[in-house]
TrEMBL record:
Superkingdom in the source lineage: Bacteria
Source organism phylogeny: Bacteria, Bacillati, Actinomycetota, Actinomycetes, Mycobacteriales
NCBIfam families attached to this UniProt entry: dTDP_gluc_dehyt (TIGR01181)
Protein name: dTDP-glucose 4,6-dehydratase
Organism whose genome encodes this protein: Dietzia cercidiphylli
Residue span(s) of domain NAD(P)-binding: 5-303
EC nos: 4.2.1.46
């Protein structure tokens, strides 16, 4: 099996490459990554060089994407498309890179797969469905209407629509997955969980947007990737699969868990973290109903104890300071330009 993994030097893509190398001894992976600020070469360090190659390039540039996809000639070969600008806060400040990478990038990947009749799996997000009310008993299903809120989620929704159109109009052999919030090793320190962990590791106070009532549906990155691999090998072409692990927690709850696990709970009415300026248009709640993915593909998440997953993630950031320390100061300086303590 030969795979082209776009965005494979980012958080989920790098974890995916590690999983493939570990679990598929005959697989060869070519990572195509633009090496934006979100990428890190050392996330792929230690992988066998005869099985993993990193090509630095923009997937929206048809030349490089087409050249790599053309090499996928075997029956099990495929493109797994993770590449995207992924951070909502950045999309609010500077939307253009999101339109470029997420929409034009997906277009170029689709055209290459169409030209060479190559199987594609497109990795997307639950944010395409917009948000749910906190007291809504419902969850997202593959039948939920698209209703994205941010420039990030709108560009991911646009990319999903391109994939659906290329399946129907051109017969491209593609599947789509929409997953909830991931956490685990190699996640950029701009994101919620690693930001709070690394704030505490550098003697800074954690930062909670608004009241912290917003709910996210957390899944360990290894569970997301095991579902992607299952869809790649057993999914029905043309289908959309939802991936989630029943991990709904409010941001306040997750913050309190991190503080407790790191011995940083406050005292005398001080919670130990700061409430700061809320995100404009902040989605209230995401929740995935992954019943169809579980029942049809026999997939089950393995890391569903969030306490345990957070404990292991904290340990990883403690032990891998060299991986995140070089960018920590600049990320916090960027946040400080707009963020005020409430
Ligand atoms: P990330 O920001 O950590 O990594 C994205 C990677 O894509 C980076 O290595 C970056 O350099 C690369 N990239 C960006 N633009 C590119 C381009 N034009 N050409 C080639 N490479 C490019 O993101 P992530 O959290 O690992 O997310 C990966 C994918 O999973 C994205 O498509 C995202 O929408 C989706 N997703 C993420 C989550 C989550 O919780 N993080 C949940 C569901 C879906
Ligand atoms: O739902 C899937 C999505 O999850 C993915 O598509 C995105 O790529 C990924 O970034 C993530 O989006 P969120 O916006 O939910 O993730 P983020 O880590 O930025 O924030 C999680 C929640 O925590 C959100 O409600 C905002 C809040 N937050 C975030 C930061 C960075 C804080 O309260 N404080 C913070 O410092």
């Amino acid at each position: 099996m030969r795979l082209v993994v776009t965005g494979g030097a980012g958080f989920i893509g790098a974890n995916f490459v590690h999983t493939v190398v570990r679990e598929h001894p005959h697989a060869h992976v070519t990572v195509l990554d633009a090496m934006t600020y979100a990428a890190n070469r050392t996330s792929l360090a230690g992988l066998p060089s005869d099985r993993v190659a990193l090509v630095e390039g923009d997937c929206a540039a048809p030349g490089v994407t087409d050249r790599l996809v053309a090499q996928l000639t075997g029956p099990q070969d495929a493109v797994v498309h993770f590449a995207a600008e992924s951070h909502n806060d950045n999309s609010l400040a500077t939307p253009w890179p999101f339109v470029h990478s997420n929409i034009v990038g997906t277009y170029a990947v689709l055209e290459a797969c169409r030209s060479h009749d190559v199987r594609l799996h497109h990795v997307s997000t639950d944010e395409v469905y917009g948000d749910l009310q906190l007291d809504d008993p419902g969850r997202f299903t593959p039948a939920t209407a698209y209703n994205p809120s941010s420039p990030y989620s709108a560009t991911k929704a646009g990319a999903d629509m391109l994939v659906r159109a290329w399946v129907r109009s051109f017969g491209v052999r593609a599947t789509i997955s929409n997953c909830s919030n991931n956490y685990g090793p190699y996640q950029h320190v701009e994101k919620f969980i690693p930001r709070q962990i690394t704030n505490l590791l550098t003697g800074q106070r954690p930062r909670l947007y608004g009241s912290g009532a917003n709910v996210r549906d957390w899944i360990h990155v290894d569970d997301h990737n095991s579902a992607v691999l299952r869809i790649l090998t057993a999914g029905e072409l043309g289908r959309t699969y939802l991936i989630g692990a029943d991990g709904e927690h409010s941001n306040l709850q997750v913050m309190q868990m991190i503080c407790e696990l790191m011995g940083a709970t406050g005292t005398d009415g001080d919670p130990g973290f700061d409430h700061v300026t809320d995100r404009p248009g902040h989605d209230l709640r995401y929740a995935i109903d992954a019943t169809a993915t579980r029942e049809e593909l026999g997939w089950e998440p393995q890391h569903t104890d969030l306490w345990d997953g957070l404990r292991r993630t904290i340990e990883w950031y403690r032990e891998n300071r060299d991986w995140w320390e070089p960018v920590k100061e600049s990320v916090e300086a960027k946040y400080a330009r707009t963020e005020k303590v409430l």
